[in-house]
Q: What sequence folds into this?
């Protein structure tokens, strides 16, 4: 994929460095991380924000001070603009699909009945398991919302010190049947599409970085000054 | 893995900034946020994390001070801009998921001699310990000075390093 502009930057170009360090590297890092997360089925979706907290739209993946560099990069590599838009749109679709699945759970009586039953059983178990935490306050009141979120994120286990650890270890399988719903299948399909787009973007940006580094003879990452921490733009001076 | 029986009777754990920073950094590392350049100094292995997680799970109540949140800001503001929101999200989730309660200790009610000696954050934690003395609280920290202050005040304190090494 070549640049749209006719005038070729020189060897060691600061402009090309800016693309690689401020745009391409953070995006490759984010897309790879996101792909790994999605491979485990974890969307990092949160009920309070109805967003995937650790999978963000492209403009949020770079330092806000570097937005002009993003614009400059996209002006030269036009196809990436539409691909970023497509990927961000897939993210929005995934978030909406998660919301729809959760709304279906919370508005129906079947899920609420199952949550209430498991909470009652959990409370009974606490008599013989004194280390099981009491699910008080929002942890209990919003239990249905938390459980719906766990299902969206395909959560199999969680750290032992989390308040819902013992509950989820004990009752997780009781909620698996809710994943048979059509809305969950739609969510899975949307998440898989997002994963494919992000994975390919990561690969293609990696190839572009290699091409740019070879062509302009620049290192693929900034090298820290041996004098200690430097400002973020030190290599652009 | 087992901890001494005395901890089982303890109900309140008070967390200093260091252990919270380590827990959040571990999660960030788990999510592959290597570009933020965060450094794990204690929870540098799955075993250390699991020991800490098990230790924390033995306390019914977890408390921290609002001053600790301010101290976390000093840490997060030194990380790359694009990752700061994610780190705050992780702090917020860590608090929520472990059922952490935040206590506010007013500076104007602190003894200035103590503030001068230990700083306002440590004094706020010592005050929270004093307020919960009936529940035999334990302070978890990476700060040996705070540990010493707890000892002088008759409050139980543990270093995160001890906790990481428990059961190994």
A:
């Amino acid at each position: 994929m070549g640049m749209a502009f006719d005038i070729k930057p020189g060897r060691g170009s600061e402009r090309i460095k800016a693309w690689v360090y401020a745009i391409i590297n953070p995006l490759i890092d984010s897309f790879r991380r996101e792909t790994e997360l999605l491979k485990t089925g974890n969307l990092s979706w949160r009920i309070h924000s109805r967003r995937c907290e650790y999978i963000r739209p492209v403009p949020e993946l770079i330092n806000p001070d570097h937005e002009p560099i993003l614009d400059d990069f996209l002006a030269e590599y036009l196809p990436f603009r539409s691909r970023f838009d497509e990927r961000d749109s897939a993210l929005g679709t995934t978030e909406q699909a998660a919301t729809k699945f959760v709304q279906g759970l919370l508005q129906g009586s079947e899920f609420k009945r199952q949550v209430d039953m498991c909470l009652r059983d959990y409370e009974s178990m606490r008599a013989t398991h004194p280390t099981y935490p009491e699910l008080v306050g929002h942890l209990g009141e919003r239990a249905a919302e938390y459980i719906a979120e766990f299902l969206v994120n395909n959560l199999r286990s969680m750290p032992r010190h989390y308040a819902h650890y013992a509950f989820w270890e004990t009752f997780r399988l009781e909620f698996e049947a809710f994943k048979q719903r059509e809305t969950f299948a739609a969510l899975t399909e949307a998440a898989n599409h997002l994963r494919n787009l992000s994975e390919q973007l990561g690969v293609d940006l990696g190839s572009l970085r290699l091409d740019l580094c070879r062509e302009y003879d620049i290192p693929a990452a900034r090298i820290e000054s041996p004098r200690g921490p430097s400002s973020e733009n030190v290599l652009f001076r | 893995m087992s901890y001494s029986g005395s901890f089982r009777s303890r109900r309140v754990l008070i967390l200093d900034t260091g252990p919270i920073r380590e827990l959040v950094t571990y999660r960030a590392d788990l999510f592959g946020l290597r570009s933020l350049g965060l450094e794990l100094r204690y929870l540098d292995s799955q075993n250390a994390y699991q020991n800490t997680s098990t230790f924390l799970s033995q306390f019914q109540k977890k408390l921290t001070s609002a001053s600790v949140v301010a101290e976390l800001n000093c840490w997060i503001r030194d990380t790359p801009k694009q990752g700061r929101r994610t780190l705050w999200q992780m702090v917020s989730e860590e608090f929520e998921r472990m059922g952490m309660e935040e206590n506010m200790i007013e500076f104007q009610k602190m003894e200035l001699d103590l503030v001068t000696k230990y700083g306002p954050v440590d004094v706020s934690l010592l005050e929270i310990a004093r307020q919960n003395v009936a529940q035999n609280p334990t302070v978890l920290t990476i700060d040996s000075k705070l540990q010493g202050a707890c000892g002088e005040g008759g409050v139980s304190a543990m270093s995160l390093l001890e906790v990481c090494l428990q059961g190994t």
User: Anything to note?
Assistant: Strands of chain B lie at 12-15, 61-65, 100-103, 138-141, 156-159. The first helix of chain B runs from residue 5 to 8. Confidence is low (pLDDT under 50) at residues 1-9 of chain B.
